[in-house]
Every structure is written in C-alpha cells, then in structure tokens.
Protein 1
Amino acid sequence: MSAATSRRDLAPKRTGGEVARLVSEVAPAALLGVDDAGVVLFANTAAERLFGYGRGDLLGRPISELIVSMRDIRAGMRRLRTSPLAWALARTKPRSRAADLADVADGVVDAMACRSDGTRLAVEVAESSALLPSGRPVAVAVVRDLAPRASALEHALSVDERVQAFLNTVREHAILLDSDGRVASWNSAAERITGWSADEILGKPSSILYPADEVARGRPQQLRAAAASAGRAQVEAWRVRKDGTRFYADVTLTALRDEQGDLRGFAKVTRDITARYRSEHHLRFCDQLTYVLSSSLGSYEDALRALTRLVACDLADLCILDLVDDAGELRRFDVACADPRDHAVARAVLRLAPTHAGAASPVDVARAGQARLFATVAPDVLAPGSQPAQPVGEPAPRSAVLAPLVARGHTLGVITVIRSRSAQRYDDIDLRLLQDIGQRAGLHIDNARLYKAAQDAVAERDRVLGVVAHDLRNPLNSIVVRTDVVQSTLVPRSPTGDAMRLALGRIHDTAMHMNRLIEDLLDVARMQEGGLKLEADAWSPGVLVAVAVDDARPQALAQNVLLRLDVQPGLPDVRADRDRILQVFSNLIGNALKFTPSGGEIEVRAWADGEHVHFSVRDTGVGIAPEHLPHVFDRFWQLRRADRRGAGLGLGICKWIVESHGGAIGVDSVVGRGSTFRFLLPAAPAPR
C-alpha cells in the first residue's frame, strides 16, 4: 500500500465531530491538526488554499514538509532581513525568534510555508490545542499568510523611499522636521550646502544650522511658531555650515498636519542665495563708497579715513590703508577695526611699518601692482619681519586680501583687509570687490591731488596777478598824467603839433586800456580774497542806464553802430553800488560793440517785474555757439583765443558783481543773429 493510500486510510480514523466543529469555528485561517509525531491529522479548506495541496495530500504529511522551521532557514532570513520588507516587518512587529514551533514563547512565530508548486510564503503560525473524541490531545497550528500585511508595509516603505528619492533630486536644501524641530529627513542638496551628512544630523535639532546669536534670540522656535500659526513662514537670513562658515539663505517652512489637524512636523526648503545677497550688498557698498569718496574732494585724507572704517565694518575685522608718500615710500596711513575689542590691536598695527617681507607684504603688492588673495592665512604670512604672526592680535588672522590703489598706471597705496573673528573666508568675489575699491580710492586720491594742485596754481596765479597789477598801475598812471600834460602844454598849434597830439592821444588811450585790464586783474584778486567791497545806495535804474549809454555812445558812433535806449517809466529804485553796476554795463556794452559789425544795432533796456528790476543788452552781432554758452562767465575765457582785446575777465567780474548784489545774470544767443545778456537786481524797499 502506498504512503498516500495509507494517509487516506488513516484520515477517517483520526477525525471526529469535535475536530469538524473546531474547523468551522476558526475558518478562514489555515488550520492543521498535528499529532505528537508531527503528522498532519486534519486540515481545513483555507489550508488547502494556502499550501496548494488537496486535503488528501495534506493528511498524513509531516508538518516539517509544510512549515520550515526558523533554524532551517536562518541563513535565508539573514538575507531577507537586508531587504526593505524584512526591515519593515522587524520594526513593525518585533518579537522573540523561536528556533522552531516547540520554542514559541508568546504563542506566535514567523515562519515559511512550503507550497505544492515549490514556492514559499511568509506566514505567521500560532499554536493551539484540541481533543479528539477518543480524548487524545492534538496540536493545532493556525497559519496566516503574511503577504497582505507585508504588501501594505512594503507599499508604505516604497512611498517613503520614493519621497526620499524625490527629495534627493531637488536642487534646494529640502528636508523634514518633526514637531519639535528635529531633523527627520535629509537630502543630498542639504548635505552639499551644509556639509552635514544624513547620519550626522538626523535626529539633531535644526537650530544647529542657525548662527549662535539667532539661537540665543530664539529664532528657530519663533520661525516654527509662525509656520504653525499661519501654515507657512518665509525668511531670508544667515545660516551656518558644519565647518562654521555662513551662507545667506531663503528659508520656507511649511507646517504638516494630519487628517485631524494635529501638527506632525514641518517641510523646510532652504535656498542658498549668498551670491545674490553678496551682489546686492556689494552694489549698496559701492554706493556708500562713492558717497564717502565724493564727500571731500579738497581734503581726501578725511575721505580715506572714512573709507577704512566703512570697509572694516562691512567687509573685514581689520582694514589697513598704506599710502605712497612724496618720496615714493609706502607709509601707514590708517587702521580701522569692526569690533571694539580690537581697538588696541588697531592702534598697535598703526604703529607698525608696512615694510615687512613676506607673501602678504604691502610693499611687494605696491611694487607688483597686483592684488593678492589669501583664503587661508599661514602662520607667518602677515608677520612683520621676524616677529610672530600676531600684528592683528587674537584670534589670529584667518583670511586676507591686499589690493593696490591704482590711478593712471601708478600705484598710490595698498588696502589690506583681514578676517580673524569671522569663520568666513575671502574668495575671488571679494578679491574683485577689493580691486574695485582700490581703483576707486586710487582715482579719488589722484583727482584730489590734481584738484589741490590746480587750486594752488590758481591761487598762486591770482596772487602774482595782484602783485603785478598793483606794481604796474602806478607807472601807467604816470604815463597818463604825463601825456595829458604834454598834450596841453608842450605841443604847439601846428600841423606837426596835431600829428604829435594824435600820437599822444593813442598813447593815452592805450595806457587807459591797460589800466582797465589792471583794474580787472585787481578785481579778480580781490574777489579771490573776498575783499571786493560794495558801497550800496538807492539809485534810479533809468539814471544808471542813461549814464552807461552816454559813456558808450562815442565808441558806437565811431563804429557806425546804432545804440538805442528803452527804459520802462516809473521803475522802482535799486539798492546798488553805482560804480560797480556801471562797470557791469560798460563790460556788457563793450562786448556787444566788440562783436557787432558796422551798421549793426545795440539796445539797452530796463523794466520791472515784481520785486526785481531787469536789465538787458541786446546786439545784432555774430552770436555765440550753444556749446560755448556755459563758459562765457568763466574767468580768462575768450570766444576767440586770437583776440587780444581783453583778458577774458570782464564777464566773470560782471557775474560776481551782480551776484554780490543778490541778483542773477544770464545770456541767450543765436549764431548769426546776435546775443542778449540779461541781469536782474532786487528793487530797493519803498521809503516809508
């Protein structure tokens, strides 16, 4: 008889009503009744489905062929535990592992079911007991398929893996925090930006990414509270890397809540915007720099001291400025620090000569004319000679940049910036900024020196002109007096005498012209020294204009130029220095006569407008080109350089006289049609 036949023959003898009732009670779980020899005595329909055998094939089969003990598959389980599924099962349902069914401590054990097709299933086996009608006890194995539970767990795990895989593709620092602000997930971008690996930071408080001062102020908690309240919070602020360096970040924190609305954590996205921040900061800094340097052209030393303080506060812990003196030697000019604790250090550095040797020597930078970047400072790189590298005190320098101050191809100085307290290192962006600062500062120094030289030259010129004019006036006055005496007393009444009189008259006129030039030069010197005094009184505008026209009429007649007068009746008086205002008219009418051809016309007008009296001199001469109009009142400016009939001072003196009276002067001109010079004076208060 075959084994299968023997098993079928045994089955009716080993089954009874109690077993049938037990089967019906616990279905649909797979049930196997096992005797003390480990042979299956009964099985239910669920067992047939689970193992893939018919009931006849199950009965009489050793249980060891259907359920493999843990001891038998220990090596396989080791491999299985390395898979996400086994890891999930171990975490979600931890229990003691029995070697086989007899070693079950808590009544349930995980095992492997062997199906008829040779495949294996992960199952859960629970042990129970029953009595046969004969009173014989049997063990009942309740076997449940773990596949549905494992599938759900594996699906949940795969979702987490897909989320993590997605986060790893995000270029921004994207992580998850739990409700207490601890790091719950970490992506590759976060590791790249901060230097922290997932193993190092998972479970740590997110405040590890904040600067110490923000942690002290409670900023991490405040940001989480804002996100929890509004659902989302955004801020731009400094964050800290693992190595202590800082980066400027755009941080968005979003609260995560479950279906019941309970806070479960936060999603945090951090973008490194350091490059944008530095670009904007550098633009603002350059605006400040331009303002500082342009605030004092005459005394550039004050502007340079302000520059060192600005650089120290914005870009460095210590800023050193060395300038090339008149002898071509580099001298220490100024030192500024950002931290008040370093004031003593700054004073000590100010006393040091910038002539030490070494890679970071300002002298070498000045000679080479090239900026140098030291992202990390070696112990001796800033050492003055044989001294230890502590000219900048404690803490020791960490990073430095030296840049020359250059203008027109010449090095005028060296600016040095040092970071010692900050963990931030200088880089190529800082190097380019310091080069720009050096060029701007060098240009400012060069312009200031040129401006001072020009001012000194002008002052010296005016001083010499004043001396020369003063010394020439007396001899000229003597010439004028002597020609008058000779003309009136010594020249006979004869044709020969008439010729002598004509020659003497020309000498007299030339001497008077020279005297007017000398007076102009003296006026310029007085204006420069602020010594041109006005003796103001109330004068009728009509009288002033009439006197000026009468004085110019002989010359106008000689040149065949029509000189007309147009004065509005009833003009109010002006408070003026009569001689100086007549000097203005003389210069304006004289200029008009100089550039108006024979047959032309000059009109002198006066009219009132509110609280001012207006005057104008209009001619029909050659006119002035638009590009020359802004310069007509400049001293020593002439429309035609070859014209030696004046020194180019008259219109400048007119401007000074009119403005000294509280008035204003201007000109309109069209080439080929003539020019109109206008000026106004305040009307004198009406007498009470």
Note: The domain at 3-146 is CATH 3.30.450.20 (Beta-Lactamase).
Protein 2
Amino acid sequence: MTTTKVLKFWCEPADDDSKELLMQQISLGYTYARSLDDAENTRRRSFRDHLMDVTPFKEAENELTALYESTSKENRDDAFRTKVELLRSAKKDVYISSKTTEPFVSKIKEDQDRYRAEVRRIRADLGPRGHGLSFGSYQHEEDAHLQSKSTRAPYLPLIRKRLPKEGTFAVHLQSEYKAPIQNVLDGSCRWVSIGSEMYSISRKVKYGSRTRDDSKSRGRRLRQVSLRVSGKGGDTKLIKVHALIHRMPVTGTVVWARIHTQRTGRKLRYSLQISVDNPVFPADVKNIRTAKSGVIGIDLGWRETDEGFLIATASEQNGNQLPPLIIPKEVALRGITHQRIDSRCETLQSTRDQKFNDIINRIRHVRDSAADWFREHTQHCHKWRSPGKVVGLFSKWRNNRWNGDDEIFDATSAFIKKDGHLWDWEAHNRTRMSRQIRGTYQRWADILASNYAEIRIENLDIKQAAEDFRKKAESEHQKDNNKSKSPLIDTRAKLQLAHVGHSLVRSCNRNECNLGRVDKRYTSRKCHLCGTKGKKTSDKLVFCKNKECALYNCAVDRDIRAALNIASSEVLEWVAGPLAAPKEPKERKNPRRRTKQAETISAAA
C-alpha cells in the first residue's frame, strides 16, 4: 500500500534569472492550458448545437432558461432548486438516450476527430518538444485539464479562472527516476536537490560568510532548492529558490516537486510542494504522549454568540465539558459589514470604490476635448467595474499624449498608485485574518489530540451544513429587516470551516490519536442518558420528554447534548490515527489516452 504526503514550504526565487525562468515556464503552461480549454470548448459548443436539434433537450433548456429569468436571486428557495434539478435530470436523460442514435453519433464522431487533430497540433507546437514547456508542467496541466473535464457536464463549457503570473511549475520524477529523500537532501538527484547551505531570510547570504556574523543572526534560515527544467532540444536549466525547509521525512521517495505562485494584491507569493511516497518522519517525543486515554465527542457547526462565532463544542464521555472553539468577532468579521465592528478591510474596499468612481467621473468630463482614440477607448467607461480598465487605458495613454491632458493624466497616475497601495493593504489584512483563523483551529486541535486517545466527530459535510445555516440566518434577517442584505452572508467563507476537519486530521496523525466518524442523525435531539428524542426550542435548548429520565423537562444546550451523544456513539469509520486504513492513491490518467466519453461514443458508433 502506497501513501503519498505533500510537504509544503514557503519559498521565493534565489535570483533574477531563476525568477525569469520560472515566470517563463508558468506563462508557457498557461498558454498550453488555455489552448486545450479552447479546443475542448469548441467541441463542446458543437456538441451542444447537435443536442439542441433534439426537441426534448431544447424544450428542457428553454424551460430552464425561462425559470432562471423569471425568478430573482432573493426568491430562489428550495422549490426553485427542486425544479432546476428536475430539468437538469431531464436534459441528462435526453443526452444519454441520444448517444445511441445514428445521426447524432456520426456528428459527434466527426467533431471528435477534429478535436483530436487539434489536440495533437497543440501538443506538438506548445508541448515539451515544441515550445519549451517543461515535461512536469505539461503533465500537471494535462491532469488539471482532465479534472476540469470530468467535473463539468459534456454540453457545458469549461471555466478555469487564473490570474496573470499565477500557476504551477512542476517536476515529475517518473518510475525510473524516482529518488529517495536522502538523495534529494545530499544533492545526488539531478532533478530535485536541496542544498545544505543556510541563507539569511533577509539578506540572502550564506551563514558563515565574511559578510555576516553567525552569532548576530536572527530569524529563520533558508535552504537552496534546485529544480531541473528540461527544455526544447535537450537543454537543461535550473530554477533555484530559497525555501524554509522544516520537518523532512527520514525515508521516502520523491515523485513530484512543484513551485506554486499565487497573487495577493500586487505581490506574488511562492510555495514549494514536494510529494513523497511512504514518508517516515522522526518521532517527536514532545508532541506524542504515550499515556493518553479518554474519548471525546465534537459537535461541528457554527452559530453567532456574544463572545464570537461558536465553531465546535467538545465533551468527554463522562460529561465533562471542554473549552469550545470560538472565533472572536473582531477576527471573523474583519472584512464583513457589521454594525458593531469597525472593519478595516471593508473600509479599504469602500475607499477604493470611491476613488475609482471619482476618476471615472473625471475621465467622462474630459472626453469631449480629448483625442479620438481616447473617446473611442472610453466610450463605455460608465460601465467599468474594475480598476484594471483604468490601468489598461493609462498604458495606452503614455504613448498617445495630447495637448492639455496634463491634469487628468497626473490624476490617473496618482489613482493607479494609490489604488495599488490600498489593494496590497486590503489583501494583506485578509491574508492575516485567514492565518489567524487557521492557527486558532490548529492550536485547538493540537490540544485535544495530544491529551486524548480518541476523537469522534459527526459524519457530515461541514461546508453544506454551514451553507444551510447561512441560508436560514439570512432568511430570518430579511424578514426582520425588509429584505436587506444580512451581515452573515459572507461569514461562512471567512471562517473556512473545512479547515477544522483538516486541522483535526493533521493533529491526530501527528499525535497518534484516533479520529473517527459517527452517525449524525438525531445527535442534538436525543437525550444522552435515556436516548429519547427531545423537544427543540428556538433558543437552542432541548428538553427530555421521558418522565422516568433524570433529566426530564430539564433544558440542555443542543450543542452540548450533541457532543455527549457523539462521544458515546459507535464509530462508523476511522479517518486518522493508527486505526485509520491508508488510502489507495488514485491512478493517474494518461493524457494521451482517449477520454472515457470518447471511448463510449466510439463503441456506440
């Protein structure tokens, strides 16, 4: 059984040449992925045109479009979603039945042949042997393309959003080139190597050199990581990055190495990801306690309280209550409109919008006396919603000045500079908020996993549960506030509830604590003593209706009762810890192999 773990480290390019080469590879990967998506979307548009010739499919499509146009977003309730699912199911049934008809199959086969020819041309011109794209990045983009195809219906276009300069450079160590982790650390692997020299995080100079005294060094130390780029014609180059390497496994086999870039404001953030098969980490005696005992239950699901947002409630089997997981409002609502919170991110966004509206109004006022190209370019400036439109106008404006434009030109230049500063400030605050929330989750999970032998949680979808609660809270708010927007509308995204489960899994694996899932049904309604279903009230309390129970007619908090029931329930499956079964890795699809849909159509033909 093979287990794969992805190690993530902070990094940044070691020099300008490495940064330029990295951006070049990311640009090539973006061009290649966009070409594949364009070819696939062309085939899907033709496929949809053929389906629209089928009368039942066309009727279901027209009815679905009319339903969306006649129903506003505020009135899209459960009945609306049920109608949408029924219409989509009808379209899917028509699609499946149409695949066996001879005219439809012949048209699809012709489109499929043209699509395959186009894909072969793209791979020859923009692939590793054509345009210089690295082979690992080529495989990464192919896998992402296949993944996006599998998650969309065959008659819907692919939508993959990616900002400029964002992407992934990858090095894939195939079966014959897979390297043990020790070969990567000592530099004997020619594809990926991690040097032993230490570099300063601020000055990027080696420790022990004449330019820096080790005794006065402060902060963490970086190590240089080199990744090989196999280009066109057999040319090989190295991308060097300084990475903050920590907690490396003792043994294991490296199969992937990736450098991921992500935009935060105007800045780029880099991360190094190394995939290792069957890693073995050194025992951390400070975190692992061999004498742990006890079982606790955790009720996941959030609600607003006076102290903040209650994320999870924990309780032992004997009834002892543990400190709940609470995110303070000043952290969770940073960036969300709220009456009691002075939101810095919201203020920054409002300031940016105000300055953007001001510069648009000034541009509209000078259009009559401006050059012809300026009037044509700003013809629809009243519909602009992004500062990037102003940046594009300014780039063209630099080389096409006219007499008397000094004042508005300087004002536009000042707006771009100020907006970029505010954008960086806002993005930094949102990133810091996200880190604070994730850090709170991880510290809470570490405390539980290091003190108990078993942790039990509900077998539920955390994202869906939070979405259901958000819809209910917003509907109640609209009834009381004349259909105004609820301040809780974006809180679910800010709290990142899915990371609660991720933090528990990481902590349990690290501290040898077993994490199990139990049945989620009636955990908050059943009495934890007699098992009778109680009566719920609007103030989050539950009353036991069994007269023979010791808690008859006693009010108990629903979250506390759910945690007690979860702690005493039978485990359905173990998801982390020593008792968890290792997951089998998914088999990688060959990008040159025909997709499953093409094989089905060919078989029908």
Note: The two ends are 39 Å apart (CA to CA).
Protein 3
Amino acid sequence: MNADTAVIHFDDFTLDAAKRQLSKNGEEIGLQRKVFDTLHYLLCHADRVVTKQELLDEVWPSTVVTDNALTRVISALRKVLHDSPQESRLIRALPRVGYRFVGTVSFDTFEQKEDENRISLAVLPFQPMSPSESDESLQLGMADNLISQLSCLPDLIVRPLATVRELASAIKDPLIIAERLNVDVVLDSSINRRGDRVRVSTRLLSTRDGSALWAATLDDQFSDIFLLQDTICAKILSELTPQLQTPQTRPRPTTPEAYRAYLEGRLFLGRFTERDVNRALSLFETALDEDPTHAPALASIAECHDFLGTMGSEPGTHFREAGRMSRRALKLDPRIAEATCVQAKIAWQFDWDWPRAEALFNTALRRFPNRADLHAANSDFSCYMQMHERAIEQARRALVIDPISPWVNTLLAQALHMSGRDDDAVSQARRALEFAPDFAFAHFFLGLSLFSSGDLEQGLAELKIAVASGRPDFVAAFGFCLGAAGRTEAAEAILEQVVAAGDHGPPIARAIVNLGIGNIDDARKEFEACVQIHDWHILLLHAEPVIAELAAGTGLDELLEPLGLPAA
C-alpha cells in the first residue's frame, strides 16, 4: 500500500491522500495542513500506538515545536470527527505516550490512471550567487521559462511560478519548500550575470531523501541563454525518467535587450494590479520594439490587455488589442499556451461566442493538460455558463497542479458558490485564506457565500475586507448586498461613490448597486449599457445566485435572451 496515494475509509469518512481531501458521506471537509497530515499518519499506523515524538517528527519535520502544537491539532481533529477525549471513539490518547486510531480502517488501492505515473516538479526562482548581484527579473524569468517549457509534457506536473515564488520568499531550504508543495523533485539554482556572460549553478534534488539527482555549473554568453535553458531541461528529463520526451517548445532566440525587458515585464504582470499590469505592458512593448518577432512578448501584451479589459474600462479597446496580439503570437509560435488561453477568454468575455469559447478551451487543454491557468480559466467560463459540475471539476484539476495557490483555491470556492453549495464554498474560501490571509478574492467569495447562506452580518464584514483592495466590482457588490440587506442609506452612499467615478467606473457597478437598492429602472439602463459595450459582467444576472434571486421577476433577465446562452 502506497500511503501517499491511498484512499482510506473509516466511520462515515473517506480520506484521499493523493488529493489531500477528507470527505464525509461524499461532502468534502476542509482541513488545515497539519490536521490532515496528523490524521493521515494515524490512519496509516492504526495497528499501533504512535508516540508524540514520532508525530512531531513526521508532521513538523525540521521544525522545533512543543507538545502544545500537537495537542491543538488533535483537538481540532477530534472536533472535525465528532469525537471527544471522554468517548475516544476514533482517537485514543495514552497519557505521556502518544495516540492511537482505534476506529475501523480500510484501504483502497489507488487507481487514478491519469495521475499515477506523473512526476511532480518545482522549479525554484533562481538565486543570486551573491546578494550584491541580485537581478530579480532575470532570476524569476529563468524559472518562468523553464516552467513554461516543462509544463507542456503530459507526464510531468510542474508547480506554477507564482505559488513557488510565494513560498520561496519566506522559506530558504529547498527541501522544505518541496515538502510544502508536495512534489517529487525540486530544481534549486543560482545565477550571475557579468557583462555579456551568465553563469548558472543548478541541482535537481529528490524530496524523498534529499539526494542530488544531478548538479552542474554552466557558463555561456547571455545571448545564448536559451541554450542554457535547453541544457537544463534536457538534464532534468534524463534524470527523472527516460519515458519523458524533451519538450519542443523552446522560445525563439531574441536579443538580450528584448529578453531583459520581457523578463522585467513578467515580474510586474505577476502582481495582478492595474498599475503593475500597465507597467508590464510598457516593458513588453519595449521588448517588441527591440524584436518585433518575439512571440512571448506579443502573448504577454495580449495577457495585459485581457486583464485590463476585464476591469471594465474600455473593454472593447483592450479585448480587440488582446485578440490582435494573441493572433500575432500564435502565428509566430503556435505552442504558446498564454496566447491560446487569451483567445478562449476573449471568445466568452467579449465576443460572446460561447460554443467557440468552449471549443478553444477544449483544444487548449488537450494541448496543454498541465497548465493550471487554463483549467482555472475554463472553470471561470463554466461558472458563467452555469455548467456547474464542469466548473468544479476544472477547478479541482487546477488544484492538482497548483494545490496551495490562493487564486485556484478561490476559484473552486466561486464554482461551489455559484452551484448553490454555499457551505462548501465557505469552507473552501477559508482554506484559500489559510494560504493568503489578505487575499481579497477569497474574502470576496467568502462574503458572498456567507451572505447567500443567510449570514448577512458576517458576509458583509468579509465583503468590506475585499473592498479595501479598491476593485470597483468589489465595491459594487458590497453596495448591492447592503441594499439587499435593507441598509439603504449605506448602499446609497456606495452608489454616490460609484457614480462619482464617472467613465472610470464600469456601468455594471452602477447597475448592481441600483438593483440592490431597488432602483430597477436605473439598473435596467445600466445593464443595457453593459450589453452595448459587451461587458461580460452582464452574465451576473443569471450566474451569480445572490443577484439572480433579487433580479427574479423584474424582467431584467430579458436582456440575456438575445445572447444565446446555453440552457442551464
């Protein structure tokens, strides 16, 4: 029995080790990481007493903690399992010794063929060889390009850079990072550029025993940096398994100036704020001035315009430019996943060609099955098409690739909320907040789910936290919920704020606040404006349960009839 992939049944519960999920009678239960790890270890050793020290060593490796930490975890675990120290129905404590799982346990063999032979890898951001030589854009760019190349292989799961970067900024030990990311191998590298030369020291580590599967120091011209990346990719694959084929996605060579501007742009794009995305756009345009045939820069410009289009300000201008740039990128290099994803998003967010969007997503996922961003975008699309099971399934697939991403965890919360499973959505949003306590999107969907389930006060409190991010759609949703909760005066204050933004605020913001207050005629006028400018947020009228419920009987759903949406 492979403990890491076992499916374990006890009482009315099922623990899926590979998916890191606990469920009761088919309903998933959110668990903190240490609580899950403790339960998993106790179940796998249910034939004996597990000492406290053994649990501390297993669940908190390389970390010094006291018995109090274990006591708190056992207490949380008993609460989830509806057990108690007095009953000891499932977990029995032996004073000053340890614990034993005393419930009946059965194991299933792991038969998920899709994942059983796949190897998981984390590529850490490259580190400077000395602090005075730090070049963040080059360090992250090297990792990003390697991840893009390796992600195209169907038998290799590569953790996305954003997730890896978040952990690497707080933890320096590569093996601890790998353990947190739950991967088989980790690439740990350093880089230094002096003049026109670049030196890379890199090692591929096994997380099972910490051994180096491969290590090397490479030195070359900066203009040949793509050759260095190819060498590293080939070495990784030759060490992991001979069954994996070398990826055929090497970027075309470009000028050092264009590459540097491109790397800096990716650094800003990854921050996902309007200000940083505009800065990234400027850098990508600089790269394109240096090399008009640099397909990655073209695809990145398309990503920038797609992001800015979703913000509601001049969506037509941004989405049309995103489409133009993504087509140029794919003409130069049909293997760029980012450009393919942008085309699918434009099809549904602006062109409103739902069948084409679905076909593009399906094609993209066949070609790039291990891209978390593609599965996440498809989940988002499926939510608004009311294809709820598909939305949940795609979010879960993204989580297999990127399990601790706040964004991916929040998208699963969105899919659960929009399918009417608010209790599950609340648990999932809280799980996202475990990874990033300040993540505004998680607070947003936690607030909507709580509000929808009837907990108005806590829902409004969470939405207020999300509003601090300054996003106009979050402000509008907060105003809508205030109005729907009968807080008319507070909602009208939000409406004044939204109206004062003028053209800088999208009509959807004015539409939903007016709807919440009950100004149906004003809401209709703004929703009609959304239709005129092809603002995809009009789909909230049927996809967002809280809005759809209040809009029922107002006739506003008639605005959706000409859009040819698929039947729910």
Note: Residues 470-568 form one domain.
